[in-house]
Amino acid sequence: MKAIILSAGQGSRLGHLTDDRPKCLIEFGGRSLLDRQLDTLAANGITQAVVVTGFRDDQIEKALERRRSAGEGPEVRTVFNPFFKVADNLGSLFLVRDELKGECLVWNGDTLVSKSLMAKVIGNDRPGICVTVDRKDRYDDDDMKVIRDEASGQLHAIGKRIPSGVNAESIGLLAFRDGGAERFAEAIEREMRTAEGTTVWYLRVIHYMAQDSEIWTLDISGEEWGEVDFPEDVVGAEELVRGW
Protein backbone atom coordinates (compact mmCIF):
# COMPACT_ATOMS: atom_id res chain seq x y z
CA MET A 1 0.00 0.00 0.00
CA LYS A 2 1.20 3.52 -0.88
CA ALA A 3 0.28 6.78 0.85
CA ILE A 4 -0.34 10.14 -0.83
CA ILE A 5 0.03 13.07 1.58
CA LEU A 6 -1.34 16.47 0.59
CA SER A 7 1.02 19.10 2.02
CA ALA A 8 0.99 21.89 -0.57
CA GLY A 9 -0.79 24.60 1.41
CA GLN A 10 0.72 27.31 3.57
CA GLY A 11 -1.78 27.02 6.43
CA SER A 12 -2.46 30.75 6.55
CA ARG A 13 -5.13 30.33 9.24
CA LEU A 14 -2.31 29.52 11.65
CA GLY A 15 -1.05 33.11 11.45
CA HIS A 16 2.61 33.81 12.19
CA LEU A 17 3.34 30.10 12.70
CA THR A 18 3.35 29.63 8.94
CA ASP A 19 4.70 32.99 7.77
CA ASP A 20 7.81 31.33 6.40
CA ARG A 21 7.27 27.61 6.73
CA PRO A 22 4.59 25.20 5.55
CA LYS A 23 2.07 23.87 8.03
CA CYS A 24 3.44 20.35 7.75
CA LEU A 25 6.76 21.44 9.30
CA ILE A 26 5.30 22.80 12.55
CA GLU A 27 6.78 20.72 15.36
CA PHE A 28 4.88 18.83 18.05
CA GLY A 29 6.93 17.23 20.79
CA GLY A 30 10.15 17.67 18.82
CA ARG A 31 8.86 16.11 15.58
CA SER A 32 7.26 17.93 12.68
CA LEU A 33 3.73 17.11 11.60
CA LEU A 34 5.12 15.54 8.41
CA ASP A 35 7.67 13.52 10.39
CA ARG A 36 4.92 12.18 12.59
CA GLN A 37 2.81 11.22 9.60
CA LEU A 38 5.70 9.41 7.95
CA ASP A 39 6.66 7.74 11.24
CA THR A 40 3.11 6.45 11.57
CA LEU A 41 3.19 5.02 8.05
CA ALA A 42 6.55 3.35 8.63
CA ALA A 43 5.34 1.83 11.91
CA ASN A 44 2.48 0.23 9.99
CA GLY A 45 4.57 -1.25 7.21
CA ILE A 46 3.93 1.37 4.53
CA THR A 47 7.15 1.60 2.50
CA GLN A 48 6.19 4.20 -0.13
CA ALA A 49 4.78 7.71 0.14
CA VAL A 50 4.17 10.56 -2.27
CA VAL A 51 4.11 14.04 -0.72
CA VAL A 52 2.50 16.85 -2.72
CA THR A 53 4.38 20.05 -1.89
CA GLY A 54 3.76 23.72 -2.63
CA PHE A 55 4.50 26.56 -0.22
CA ARG A 56 8.20 26.59 0.72
CA ASP A 57 8.74 23.23 -0.92
CA ASP A 58 12.48 23.77 -0.46
CA GLN A 59 12.07 23.39 3.28
CA ILE A 60 10.12 20.16 2.86
CA GLU A 61 12.79 18.76 0.53
CA LYS A 62 15.49 19.51 3.13
CA ALA A 63 13.41 17.87 5.87
CA LEU A 64 12.94 14.76 3.74
CA GLU A 65 16.64 14.64 2.90
CA ARG A 66 17.42 14.63 6.63
CA ARG A 67 15.10 11.64 7.03
CA ARG A 68 16.84 9.81 4.19
CA SER A 69 20.24 10.53 5.68
CA ALA A 70 19.06 9.14 9.00
CA GLY A 71 17.69 6.01 7.30
CA GLU A 72 14.11 6.78 8.28
CA GLY A 73 11.35 5.32 6.13
CA PRO A 74 9.22 5.20 4.19
CA GLU A 75 10.70 5.94 0.77
CA VAL A 76 9.28 9.35 -0.21
CA ARG A 77 8.85 11.02 -3.57
CA THR A 78 7.60 14.59 -3.92
CA VAL A 79 5.45 16.29 -6.54
CA PHE A 80 5.39 20.09 -6.60
CA ASN A 81 2.02 21.79 -7.04
CA PRO A 82 2.70 25.24 -8.55
CA PHE A 83 -1.00 26.12 -8.30
CA PHE A 84 -1.38 25.75 -4.54
CA LYS A 85 -2.36 29.41 -4.11
CA VAL A 86 -5.15 29.35 -6.69
CA ALA A 87 -6.51 25.80 -6.62
CA ASP A 88 -7.92 23.80 -3.74
CA ASN A 89 -6.69 20.35 -2.76
CA LEU A 90 -8.45 18.73 -5.72
CA GLY A 91 -5.71 20.37 -7.78
CA SER A 92 -3.04 18.56 -5.76
CA LEU A 93 -4.69 15.22 -6.40
CA PHE A 94 -5.08 16.05 -10.08
CA LEU A 95 -1.30 16.40 -10.32
CA VAL A 96 -0.77 12.94 -8.80
CA ARG A 97 -3.75 11.21 -10.37
CA ASP A 98 -1.41 8.68 -12.00
CA GLU A 99 -0.40 7.60 -8.48
CA LEU A 100 -4.00 6.63 -7.71
CA LYS A 101 -3.66 2.96 -8.52
CA GLY A 102 -4.10 -0.27 -6.62
CA GLU A 103 -4.13 -0.06 -2.83
CA CYS A 104 -3.35 3.41 -1.55
CA LEU A 105 -4.15 6.02 1.07
CA VAL A 106 -4.93 9.72 0.62
CA TRP A 107 -4.09 11.70 3.75
CA ASN A 108 -4.50 15.39 4.47
CA GLY A 109 -1.19 16.96 5.45
CA ASP A 110 -2.68 18.67 8.52
CA THR A 111 -3.98 15.58 10.33
CA LEU A 112 -2.19 13.64 13.06
CA VAL A 113 -3.34 10.09 13.77
CA SER A 114 -2.13 7.50 16.25
CA LYS A 115 -0.36 4.38 15.07
CA SER A 116 -3.25 2.21 16.24
CA LEU A 117 -5.74 4.32 14.28
CA MET A 118 -3.65 3.90 11.15
CA ALA A 119 -3.49 0.15 11.78
CA LYS A 120 -7.30 0.02 11.73
CA VAL A 121 -7.42 1.94 8.45
CA ILE A 122 -4.88 -0.34 6.81
CA GLY A 123 -6.44 -3.49 8.26
CA ASN A 124 -9.97 -2.59 7.19
CA ASP A 125 -11.15 -4.63 4.22
CA ARG A 126 -13.90 -2.39 2.82
CA PRO A 127 -13.75 -2.61 -0.98
CA GLY A 128 -13.46 0.36 -3.31
CA ILE A 129 -13.32 3.66 -1.42
CA CYS A 130 -13.46 4.03 2.36
CA VAL A 131 -13.60 7.34 4.26
CA THR A 132 -12.28 7.31 7.83
CA VAL A 133 -14.77 8.99 10.18
CA ASP A 134 -15.25 9.86 13.84
CA ARG A 135 -18.33 10.83 15.84
CA LYS A 136 -19.02 13.53 18.39
CA ASP A 137 -21.97 15.24 20.04
CA ARG A 138 -21.81 18.49 18.05
CA TYR A 139 -20.32 19.45 14.69
CA ASP A 140 -19.08 22.96 13.96
CA ASP A 141 -18.91 24.95 10.74
CA ASP A 142 -15.38 23.81 9.91
CA ASP A 143 -16.03 20.08 10.31
CA MET A 144 -16.21 17.94 7.17
CA LYS A 145 -19.59 16.48 8.02
CA VAL A 146 -20.81 13.05 7.01
CA ILE A 147 -24.14 11.29 6.71
CA ARG A 148 -23.66 7.54 6.78
CA ASP A 149 -25.81 4.47 7.21
CA GLU A 150 -25.23 3.42 10.82
CA ALA A 151 -25.81 -0.25 10.08
CA SER A 152 -23.86 -0.78 6.85
CA GLY A 153 -21.40 2.11 7.03
CA GLN A 154 -22.25 3.29 3.54
CA LEU A 155 -21.64 7.00 2.96
CA HIS A 156 -24.58 9.07 1.70
CA ALA A 157 -23.23 12.63 1.90
CA ILE A 158 -20.07 14.52 2.85
CA GLY A 159 -19.39 18.25 3.04
CA LYS A 160 -19.13 21.24 5.35
CA ARG A 161 -22.61 22.57 4.63
CA ILE A 162 -24.90 19.65 5.40
CA PRO A 163 -27.89 21.14 7.26
CA SER A 164 -29.23 18.06 9.05
CA GLY A 165 -28.82 14.34 9.56
CA VAL A 166 -25.08 14.54 10.29
CA ASN A 167 -23.80 11.55 12.26
CA ALA A 168 -20.02 11.62 11.70
CA GLU A 169 -17.10 13.71 10.41
CA SER A 170 -14.29 12.87 8.04
CA ILE A 171 -10.81 13.00 9.61
CA GLY A 172 -9.04 13.49 6.27
CA LEU A 173 -7.80 9.94 5.66
CA LEU A 174 -9.15 7.72 2.87
CA ALA A 175 -8.27 4.16 1.83
CA PHE A 176 -8.65 2.79 -1.71
CA ARG A 177 -8.79 -0.84 -2.81
CA ASP A 178 -10.21 -3.02 -5.59
CA GLY A 179 -10.33 -0.38 -8.32
CA GLY A 180 -11.50 2.43 -6.03
CA ALA A 181 -8.40 4.55 -6.64
CA GLU A 182 -8.78 4.27 -10.39
CA ARG A 183 -12.45 5.28 -10.20
CA PHE A 184 -11.50 8.25 -8.06
CA ALA A 185 -8.79 9.32 -10.52
CA GLU A 186 -11.32 9.28 -13.37
CA ALA A 187 -13.78 11.33 -11.31
CA ILE A 188 -11.05 13.87 -10.46
CA GLU A 189 -10.24 14.24 -14.16
CA ARG A 190 -13.90 14.89 -14.97
CA GLU A 191 -14.32 17.43 -12.18
CA MET A 192 -11.19 19.37 -13.09
CA ARG A 193 -12.64 19.90 -16.57
CA THR A 194 -15.65 21.73 -15.14
CA ALA A 195 -15.85 25.47 -14.47
CA GLU A 196 -15.57 24.96 -10.68
CA GLY A 197 -12.84 22.32 -10.78
CA THR A 198 -10.06 24.41 -9.25
CA THR A 199 -12.23 25.68 -6.41
CA VAL A 200 -13.47 22.46 -4.79
CA TRP A 201 -12.18 20.05 -2.18
CA TYR A 202 -11.53 16.51 -3.30
CA LEU A 203 -14.18 15.31 -0.86
CA ARG A 204 -16.76 17.08 -3.01
CA VAL A 205 -15.87 14.53 -5.69
CA ILE A 206 -16.37 11.72 -3.15
CA HIS A 207 -19.80 13.20 -2.36
CA TYR A 208 -20.75 13.18 -6.04
CA MET A 209 -19.55 9.59 -6.42
CA ALA A 210 -21.61 8.52 -3.39
CA GLN A 211 -24.81 9.55 -5.14
CA ASP A 212 -24.60 6.77 -7.69
CA SER A 213 -22.05 4.26 -6.37
CA GLU A 214 -21.02 2.65 -3.10
CA ILE A 215 -18.64 4.62 -0.90
CA TRP A 216 -17.89 3.20 2.54
CA THR A 217 -16.88 4.61 5.91
CA LEU A 218 -14.72 3.30 8.76
CA ASP A 219 -15.71 4.52 12.23
CA ILE A 220 -12.61 4.98 14.40
CA SER A 221 -14.39 6.40 17.45
CA GLY A 222 -12.21 6.16 20.54
CA GLU A 223 -8.94 6.40 18.60
CA GLU A 224 -6.66 9.43 18.92
CA TRP A 225 -6.26 12.00 16.16
CA GLY A 226 -6.13 15.74 15.68
CA GLU A 227 -6.40 18.30 12.89
CA VAL A 228 -4.20 21.41 12.84
CA ASP A 229 -6.03 24.36 11.26
CA PHE A 230 -6.01 27.15 13.84
CA PRO A 231 -3.56 28.33 16.55
CA GLU A 232 -5.65 26.70 19.27
CA ASP A 233 -5.29 23.36 17.44
CA VAL A 234 -1.54 23.51 18.01
CA VAL A 235 -2.09 23.36 21.76
CA GLY A 236 -4.37 20.36 21.37
CA ALA A 237 -1.90 18.59 19.10
CA GLU A 238 0.89 19.12 21.64
CA GLU A 239 -1.26 17.48 24.29
CA LEU A 240 -2.10 14.65 21.90
CA VAL A 241 1.46 13.69 21.00
CA ARG A 242 2.62 13.96 24.62
CA GLY A 243 0.68 10.80 25.26
CA TRP A 244 2.29 9.07 22.28
Q: Care to describe what's here?
A:
The chain is an alpha/beta fold and 244 residues long. 30% of the residues lie in helices and 25% in strands. The chain contains seven helices and 13 strands. It has helices at residues 33-43, 57-69, 89-95, 115-123, 180-192, 202-210, 231-242; strands at residues 2-7, 27-28, 31-32, 48-53, 75-80, 104-108, 111-113, 129-134, 145-148, 155-159, 168-176, 216-219, 225-227. The strands form three sheets. Strands 1, 4, 5, 6, 8, 9, 10, 11 and 12 form a nine-stranded mixed sheet that branches. Helix 3 (89-95) crosses helix 5 (180-192) and helix 5 (180-192) crosses helix 6. The two termini are 24 Å apart.
Features:
7 helices, 9-stranded mixed sheet, 25% strand, alpha/beta, two-stranded antiparallel sheet, 244 residues, globular
